[in-house]
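Project channel, design review

CF: Before we commit to the Alteraurantiacibacter buctensis constructs, I'd like one complete example in the thread so the newer folks can see what an input/output pair looks like. Taking MBL fold metallo-hydrolase.
RD: sounds good, go ahead.
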Amino acid sequence: MKLLMLGSGTSTGVPRIGDDWGDCDPAEPKNRRTRVSVIVESNEGKRLLVDTSTDLRQQLLSNRIDRVDAVFWTHDHADHCHGIDDLRPMRYGRAAPLPGFASAQTARRLKLRFDYVFAGQHGYHTLVELQTLERLRIFAGFSVASVEMPHGPTQTTGYRFEADGKSIVYATDFSEITADMVALFSGVDVLVTDCLRREPHPTHAHLAMALELGQRCKAGKVVLSHLDKSMDFASLQAEVPGNVIVGYDGLELMA
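CF: and here is what came back for MBL fold metallo-hydrolase:
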């Protein structure tokens, strides 16, 4: 399996509007971060998109992605779903809407906000047929499992995808490590984890929590994501253990 990191930044991206790079070196291209989305791809070329970030159009163009086989959402916060309209070109030429999956709570909120995407409107086709995760076990050759994670006062969905004897976990926007998370993520080949900053945060994982999750899960490789302007790529990569990779836009990694 292959992981393609479309975006690696927090909700404001790096730099923030106003050319605010914080502690990040503007001369390092890996510090230029769009909002988080990833693609998981099997050896057979099946692609699962996780989240429709605010920057989705440019991410798909930059990585020459013109087709996905399904879309999964972690939650309904703007930086994770407000690029949803950029799925329209992927509906062209299809006989049916794109399959989409989310928790029951996230699905309900997405349908309220983007009703035209899931029901069509004014002669436009439905873009996505949205289903909940309760009965999902296999899709397009992937084994799919999920867990609800604390995200401050709300919840977000963490995913484990398996195919071709390999596994990738995508766990973003969590503020606490639970026993259910550790159980589902245990032994994963690649763990993509929330890692907003070094200092603790009320709704996100900080560096120590991200590294702890990787250790408790015995992950083969750990990829840090959802990074803010305090997380300079080179400085952070120099201080983390050898199996930890600081994520960046365009990162490709084989599980």
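RD: helpful, thanks. The longest strand covers residues 142-151.
CF: Residues 190 and 200 are 24 Å apart (CA to CA).
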